[in-house]
């Protein structure tokens, strides 16, 4: 399986840390976020990783050049941010015609990649996306997921002040190539996965719950928590 790690974001909520460090390279216990991802994915089930860059991209380039995984990594630079699904569309040739992993590399996570892939392989016929979920302690700051009795997603509540539970979208997916065809049908270059693609597939997305560890490193507070927890 191939993986696309989204690493181009500006990380504005983490300023001033991200004034000179791209969000994907913010260190936790002196190890950059991207290093955690590569060490997690490449030993198990993932053969190649594509990483998109934009903000402070030369630092990401230097990090990859020094990585022990560099032979399995491809970098692609975006002069203009394309959105999460726009990046998928732009790189459909790399992703080819197989299911692929799509993940936001600004999260700190730990999970069994083989078990995640196995869950997707055993999906029902109508399912085209397996979405990782986690239990959040800040539901108002996350995309909360509602499922039916069969574990299929039937509703999203994006950063709602109303309480809809605490099972959140981890922004880690295994995606079937047919989803790229849908993104292409939207007819534009800049496309967001969570607002423009996922709602179209309600009832066709299954969840895989991560009960090990997952935290969005979006604020200085969450970064501090990760330093203590991980």
Gross CATH architecture: Alpha-Beta Complex
User: What fraction, in percent, of the residue positions are helical?
Assistant: 25-40%
CATH superfamily: Spore Coat Polysaccharide Biosynthesis Protein SpsA, Chain A
Give the uncertain stretches in residue-range form. none
Radius of gyration: 17 Å
Number of strands: 13
| Series of H and E elements | EEEHEHEHHEEHEEEEHHEEH
Q: N-to-C terminal Cα separation, in Å?
A: 27 Å
Q: Per the principal axes of the C-alpha atoms, what is the gross shape?
A: globular
Biggest sheet overview: 7 strands, mixed
Portion in strands: 25-35%
Task: From the structure above, extract its key features.
7-stranded mixed sheet; 13 strands; Spore Coat Polysaccharide Biosynthesis Protein SpsA, Chain A; alpha/beta; 8 helices
Question: Can you describe what's shown?
Answer:
Helices cover 27% and strands 28% of the residues. With 230 residues, it is of the alpha/beta class. The chain has a single domain (2-133, 169-229), classed as Alpha-Beta Complex (Spore Coat Polysaccharide Biosynthesis Protein SpsA, Chain A). The strands form 4 sheets. The protein has a 7-stranded mixed beta sheet, sandwiched between helices. It has a two-stranded antiparallel ribbon with strand order 2-3. The longest helix has 10 residues, at 220-229.
Short description:
With about 230 residues, the protein is of the alpha/beta class. The protein has 8 helices and 13 strands. A hairpin with a 2-residue loop joins strand 2 (about 25-30) and strand 3.
Question: What is this structure's SSE topology?
Answer:
Layout: E1 2-6, E2 27-28, E3 31-32, H1 33-41, E4 48-53, H2 57-65, E5 73-77, H3 84-90, H4 92-95, E6 100-104, E7 107-110, H5 113-121, E8 129-135, E9 143-147, E10 153-158, E11 167-175, H6 178-185, H7 193-197, E12 205-209, E13 213-216, H8 220-229
Parallel strand pairs: 1-4, 1-6, 4-5, 8-12
Antiparallel strand pairs: 2-3, 6-11, 7-13, 8-11, 9-10
């Amino acid at each position: 399986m191939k993986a696309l790690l989204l690493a181009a974001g500006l990380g504005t909520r983490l300023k001033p840390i991200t004034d000179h460090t791209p969000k994907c390279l913010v260190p936790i216990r002196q190890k950059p976020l991207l290093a955690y991802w590569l060490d997690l994915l490449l030993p198990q089930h993932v053969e190649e990783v594509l990483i998109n860059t934009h903000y402070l991209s030369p630092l990401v380039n230097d990090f990859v050049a020094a990585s022990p995984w560099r032979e399995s990594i491809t970098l692609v630079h975006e002069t203009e941010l394309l959105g999460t699904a726009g990046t998928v569309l732009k790189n459909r040739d790399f992703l080819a015609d197989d299911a692929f992993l799509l993940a936001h590399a600004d999260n700190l996570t730990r999970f069994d990649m083989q078990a995640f892939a196995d869950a997707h392989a055993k999906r029902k016929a109508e399912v085209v996306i397996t979405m990782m979920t986690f239990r959040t302690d800040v539901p108002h700051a996350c995309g909360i997921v509602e499922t039916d009795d069969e574990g299929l997603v039937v509703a999203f509540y994006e950063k709602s002040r109303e309480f809809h539970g605490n099972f959140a979208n981890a922004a880690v997916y295994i995606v079937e190539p047919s989803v790229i065809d849908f993104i292409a049908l939207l007819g534009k270059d800049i496309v967001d996965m969570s607002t423009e693609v996922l709602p179209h597939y309600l009832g066709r997305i299954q969840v895989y719950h991560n009960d090990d560890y997952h935290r969005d490193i979006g604020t200085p507070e969450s970064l501090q928590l990760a330093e203590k927890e991980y």
